[in-house]
Amino acid sequence: MSSQRLTASVSNYGGLGSFGAHGLKPEAIRNVIREIKALTTKPFAMNLWVSMEDEGAVASTEEAFHRSLSPLAKHIESVGGATPSYHPYEPIRFEDQVQVLLDEGISVFSFIYGIPSKQILDEFRHQGIVLIGTATTVDEAIALEQAGVDVIAASGFEAGGHRGSFLQPSEDSLTGTMALVPQVVDAVRLPVVAAGGIGDARGIVAAFALGAEGVQMGTAFLACEESGANTLHRKALLSGQARQTALTRGFTGRLARGIKNRLLDELNQNNIEILPYPLQRALVRHLSIPAEKAGRPELLPLWSGQSANLARCTHVRALLDTLVKEISEIGGAVQSWSAHRQLEEAQE
Ligand SMILES: Cc1cc2nc3c(=O)[nH]c(=O)nc-3n(C[C@H](O)[C@H](O)[C@H](O)COP(=O)(O)O)c2cc1C
């Protein structure tokens, strides 16, 4: 869903754009970094997943592939897709992806699903690259601080996309942003960035009140014209349909949040066999690519956080301008309320 244009636009208009590169081969990451640099001179972040595959991915069999294909097969046929055949899994190595980030020179490296080795973290530190680790629990935040990262992104379970949990299963790491952020702020000395469910200025102001020093917003930017989301996806985000989201392993094999639709509901049924990450993700692409061409959003993974229904802006610049304006309006309202209280107290 990341796009070079989205990343560069966010950085150009005052935010820190971030590109999620976990699914890309090293050479593709190199091209992406160069393309972003051609669009902005401002700092931006590259994001990777430390854990690249689930247990069992390498050993997963052709029989398992066919069992997981069976609930999708009729849909693939209905949108005119070709029936996929089994190919053994070819892993991409995290270490090779990391090497490209180091070679190309970036400003910020952010990551989820774990903590890179000390050697890797040292290499980034040596180059002066800011390190942002993602925590879905207080224990993960403490582990990230002990590993020496610079900033912690505390991700509440309202967030769109994947739960990047790494100490406990994702299902046991479902604290909401409102509860998670102040606990992380209390547990670590590092700056904390709040993520998950922040869809407008009210959410940003609330996150700062919880002790965060920044916010990470995904879903609101996904709805922007510059994002890599397809038109059907963006339309769904801006429609009332986005009021209902749910968690599923069905889209990729790992727990993630998307808009509730037919595909999500079907893959969440108990009798459905889901392949380990990233095999399920590759399988579902055999449906999502032709389903998009056929204009069938009910058969697409429509990634979204719980705040999608707050998303109104359709361009990055307009979104950032609105956020800044509304934050200062809220700030102004708080100041005049507090001045009013002081006056009342003085008159008593
Ligand atoms: C479609 C989508 C893809 C995402 N991919 C990544 C990713 O690869 N790495 C990551 O750290 N966070 C990823 N995120 C999470 C965002 O970085 C951010 O923390 C999250 O979207 C914040 O919650 P919100 O969606 O409620 O704004 C993704 C989010 C979405 C919606």
TrEMBL record:
Name of the top EC class for this enzyme: oxidoreductase
EC number in record: 1.13.12.16
Protein name: Nitronate monooxygenase
Keyword Oxidoreductase on entry: yes
The entry's keywords: Monooxygenase, Oxidoreductase
Source organism of this protein record: Tunturiibacter gelidiferens
Superkingdom: Bacteria
